[in-house]
Amino acid sequence: MTERVGASGDDEYVDCQEAIHIIYHYLDGEITDDRRVEIQGHLDDCLPCLEAYDFEAELRIFIAKKCRDEVPDSLRLRIAEAIQHESGIDPRAESGPGITQV
Predict the structure, then answer these.
(1) Which residues does 58 contact at the CB level (< 8 Å), separation at least 6?
(2) Domain count of the fold of the chain
């Protein structure tokens, strides 16, 4: 499927294959504003591509939520102490954001 895009009446076309390929760049914000408008126009007019876009956007959200590793507080403290030791600051004397003195 090929859809005409652009409210200005220009002769630029975005076909579905191109739109799907660019969706990843679109989601990452790695395209120009003009190209974003073109792709958004195609998505507005093409239900199959919009569904593909929605799937990819939801998949990214799901992965971002489920693939977070929680770092134990003891490890955070050890890292902060190592950084502070290297910088010559006594880790027990100061408390920074997210660091709880024990």
Answers:
(1) none
(2) 1
- CA 14 to centroid of chain Cα atoms: 23
Q: Let me know if residue 100 belongs to a domain.
A: no
Residue 56's alpha-carbon distances to 15, 21, 69, in angstroms, are 18, 12, 22
Placement of tokens 């914000």 in the chain: 29
How is residue 18 written in tokens? 């191109």
The pTM of the full predicted model, rounded to 2 decimals, is 0.54
pLDDT tens, the chain, 102 aa long: 444 444 444 445 688 888 888 999 999 999 999 999 999 999 999 999 999 999 999 999 999 888 877 888 999 999 999 999 888 765 555 555 555 554
User: CA distances (Å), 24 to each of 28, 52, 100, 101, in order?
Assistant: 6, 11, 40, 43
Q: Give the structural domain span for 5.
A: 1-93
Residue with tokens 């790695």: 30
- The answer to whether residue 98 is domain-embedded is no
The partner residues of 3 in beta bridges, in order of sequence, read: 14
